[in-house]
């Protein structure tokens, strides 16, 4: 992302609303602490730094995802970046259950070009973008095709998390929290994993890559 925003890393900014204190630590996380004397006062994570929110080829905010669990999903927060005289958390809301919205004011985004995506990319990715622009102009691709290429560029630059990466994360989470209700389910999963393991071994053998086998396999 924009290098000048990295100076916010390692700092935290808080905002108190009613009995809750919200804390935003850019490139790290967002937390919420209930400031009451209740024995079970809530204190938890509303999201961990995940990816940028990009709109009209401009950085507009930060997505903090995979926070504490909330019913069937994880809490997540979008932090909107707006121009302000000083660095401060200015507003907090919860537009939908377990999805929060924070407004962060900072002079670092006041310059009209401070949040443009293009200048933050490598020369190779800028060339890829230029080509896509030309293809669109020459009507060789549609507007939808152009947006798809831009999304790929943003993913390659690490500004957005790739869909496969998210899916892999989801699957890993599923496997680590997997609980087998029956022996049959366990056997089914074991067979599936054995098949995948065989495929991987075959691939390694095919490419002449040595691998160690575990005797307790």
From TrEMBL:
InterPro entries: DMAP1-bd, Gtb1-like, Man6P_isomerase_rcpt-bd_dom_sf, MRH_dom, OS9-like_dom. GO terms for cellular component: extracellular region; Golgi apparatus. One of its GO terms (molecular function) is transferase activity. It holds the Pfam family PRKCSH. Keywords: Disulfide bond, Glycoprotein, Golgi apparatus, Secreted, Signal, Transferase. Its main location: Golgi. Signal peptide: none annotated. Residues 117-217 form the DMAP1-binding domain. It is found in: Golgi apparatus; Secreted. Residues 10-112 form the MRH domain. Homodimer; disulfide-linked. Hexamer of two alpha (GNPTAB), two beta (GNPTAB) and two gamma (GNPTG) subunits; disulfide-linked. The alpha and/or the beta subunits of the enzyme constitute the catalytic subunits. Non-catalytic subunit of the N-acetylglucosamine-1-phosphotransferase complex, an enzyme that catalyzes the formation of mannose 6-phosphate (M6P) markers on high mannose type oligosaccharides in the Golgi apparatus. Binds and presents the high mannose glycans of the acceptor to the catalytic alpha and beta subunits (GNPTAB). Enhances the rate of N-acetylglucosamine-1-phosphate transfer to the oligosaccharides of acid hydrolase acceptors. This is N-acetylglucosamine-1-phosphotransferase subunit gamma. It comes from Casuarius casuarius (Southern cassowary). The gene is Gnptg.
């Amino acid at each position: 992302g924009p290098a000048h925003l990295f100076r916010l890393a390692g700092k935290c900014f808080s905002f108190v609303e009613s009995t809750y204190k919200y804390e935003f630590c850019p490139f790290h996380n967002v937390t919420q602490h209930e400031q009451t004397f209740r024995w079970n006062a809530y204190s938890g994570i509303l999201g961990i730094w995940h990816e940028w929110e990009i709109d009209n080829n401009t950085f507009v905010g930060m997505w903090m995802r995979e926070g504490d669990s909330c019913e069937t999903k994880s809490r997540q927060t979008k932090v909107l970046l707006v121009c302000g005289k000083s660095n401060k958390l200015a507003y907090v809301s919860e537009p939908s259950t377990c999805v929060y919205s924070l407004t962060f004011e900072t002079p670092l985004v006041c310059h009209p070009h401070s949040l443009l995506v293009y200048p933050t990319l490598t020369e190779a990715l800028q060339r890829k973008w230029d080509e896509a622009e030309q293809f669109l102009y020459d009507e060789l691709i549609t507007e939808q095709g152009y947006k798809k290429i831009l999304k790929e560029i943003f993913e390659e630059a690490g500004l957005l998390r790739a869909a496969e990466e998210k899916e892999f994360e989801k699957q890993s989470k599923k496997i680590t929290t997997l609980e087998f209700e029956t022996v049959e389910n366990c056997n089914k999963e074991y067979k599936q994993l054995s098949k995948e393991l065989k495929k991987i071994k075959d691939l390694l053998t095919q490419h002449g890559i040595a691998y160690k086998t575990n005797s307790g396999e």
